[in-house]
Design a protein that fits this description.
39% helix; six-stranded mixed β-sheet; alpha/beta; globular; 132 residues
Length: 132
């Protein structure tokens, strides 16, 4: 599994396409896809949106993410970092943020490569880039 994280609009999708040879047609959109599609997708963008959708349906994002890691361990997962900044006042938003962090930890542990993209620059947190 490969995991790419970073802030919104930082170039995560471009990095995935360049580093892992992902094509636009390989990318499943976590905002709109059938949730079962993630178990066979080559690349999933906006995984943080999958988590929000699961919470809205009363489904455990942690259990869903564990299943994803078992069933689709070759996937490239792209997720926005949402845990920085002001703590939300609304309890539901705090829960979404906490669950997203937990799921990120699960994906990171299951991944052989973890990359944080900042201003279009991939920074390897786990694993090595091809230039080493």
């Amino acid at each position: 599994m490969k995991f790419i994280i970073g802030g919104a609009y930082q170039g995560k999708i471009s990095a995935a396409m360049e580093i892992f040879g992902i094509k636009e047609s390989d990318i499943t959109n976590g905002s709109t896809c059938d949730l079962e599609d993630v178990f066979s997708a080559k690349c999933i963008k906006s995984y943080h949106k999958v988590i929000a959708r699961l919470l809205a349906q009363g489904v455990s994002p942690v259990e869903f993410t564990k299943r994803l890691c078992l069933e689709n361990n070759d996937a490239v997962i792209i997720m926005d970092e949402i845990g920085c900044g002001i703590v939300p006042v609304e309890k539901s938003e705090r829960k979404r943020r906490e669950e997203t962090g937990r799921c990120g930890c699960i994906i990171s542990a299951a991944s052989d490569t973890v990359i944080r993209v900042i201003c279009g620059i991939p920074v390897y947190l786990k694993g090595k880039n091809n230039e080493d």
